[in-house]
Amino acid sequence: MSSGLDTLPPELLQLIWDRLGAADTSSLRLVSKRIKEFSNRHFSVVNFKTVRTNLDQSSLQRLVDVANNIHHAINVTCLYFENAVDTVLGRNTHWDRRPSGPVTNRSAAAETLQYLLVHKLVNCRSFVIKHADDHMMTDEVGDTIEDEYNYDGLSTGDTTNLLFTVIAETGLMVKSLTISNWGYKGSNRVGGPIPTAKLSLDLFRQSRFKIPWTDLYELILEYEISHDQYDWIFDLISCASNLQILSLGFEDESGNFLKRLASATSAPPLCKLTLASAKLSGQLILDLLNNFKGSLVDICLRYVGSDEDSSWNSILAFLAEKPLQLRRLSLFYLCESWDSWNSNVIHFPALRKVMNVDSMIVTDVHEKDIDRGLGGQMDNVMKLKYLECSGTVMGVSYKGSEMKMALETLAKAAELGV
Q1: Phi, psi (5° rounding) for residue 409?
Q2: What percent of the chain has pLDDT over 90?
């Protein structure tokens, strides 16, 4: 067995490794010295492309160990800050914290993180900050109070400010950033808040903070953003001249931020735009599409309400009349009233009874199965998304060149109520 593997050319070994999971890769490393040497890079890619840390002392030490291994460090491209169900970010670690204010990078742990990113993890330019559970306190009505933590850890806002301070101080060029604060008690439409007091907004306005985002490719923000944070977020998007994927999951009932984005004079070349927890009109959607004309081909709307003067039938029909360059459209949990989600949710019951519309395939088959069934040429296909408890069609995703026909079909099929 081992001699057979030893005689295989590198190209065939690579094909084998590409089809193995982490456990199998680890086992095969024991076969021979040659196989172990060959697998070092692939093993590192599989196991260390994304490194997770909760920034406590033991987790930081593991990060140091990875960074000091030349085979692993070079393959780390993403650092994932996460507090899992039974952990808290940064617990039992000293952080330089201003009273009721932001965490700085003036602590041994912060200096270690900064040193590793600059000198060791030189390819790590993607970052994920995810609050995964309910360590936050709530007030008498259940609203989250993030700036009143009763433990010695880091909140989502603390972690965000720590990372941003390191980026500003070092000039790290960021490729991808995700900030998600969804794991908290409250609405399922928008993530928990990050109080402005947790953020060094004066720093965010400086040019040394803006320059590192010029290479940003993907930006995902899923937390409740207050109006006084709109300026720096808009500036960040404006600085990201190469931004292609943008996902905004914060509550924008007035639509002011999206209107500002739709009229921006220096719009990045977006390919995919995801909007959640916003209030939209057909004209606002069209303005967004027109401002990114020539690049935007994929749009996703979820937990989105229509404005007072529009219905989703009229919005979809309005868009069907316009010459759009869209190739993919995803809709889920649309609503016609911002305040009454349960009774005003859009669903598409008629689509359950129709398996094709003209040349378009309408199906509930998994997208990968569709792709295989069509020989890899998945085009003009509408995928249905069901609400598990009732089997109601709560959303659809369409991919293809017949966007006008897809929008017309959806405009006719959309109905209120579940």
Answers
A1: -65, -45
A2: 37
DSSP 380: S
Token digits of residue 256: 């002011």
pTM listed for this prediction? 0.85
Residue 367: the pLDDT is 45
The C-alpha angle 224, 229, 233, rounded to 5 degrees, equals: 95
Q: What is the CA radius of gyration of the chain?
A: 24
Residues of the chain with pLDDT under 50: 1, 133-151, 184-187, 366-377
Question: What is the structure's pLDDT at 314?
Answer: 92
Query: Residues 112-130, buried b or exposed e (16+ Cβ, 10 A)?
Result: bbbebbeebbeebbbbbbb
Burial per residue of 303-342, b for 16 or more beta-carbon CB atoms within 10 angstroms, e otherwise = bbbbbeebbbbebbbbbbeeebebbbbbbbbbbbebeebe
Strand partners, 272: 245, 298
pLDDT in tens, 18-69: 777 667 777 777 777 777 777 777 777 778 999 999 998 899 999 999 999 9
The alpha carbon of residue 340 and the mean position of all alpha carbons in its chain are separated, in whole angstroms, by 27
- H-helix or E-strand spanning residue 385: strand 381-387
Residue 159: Cβ within 10 Å count? 26
**Cα(272)–Cα(218) distance, rounded to whole angstroms?**
9
Nearest-CA neighbor of 222 among 243, 246, 240, 205? Answer: 246
* Residues making up the chain, counted from first to last: 418
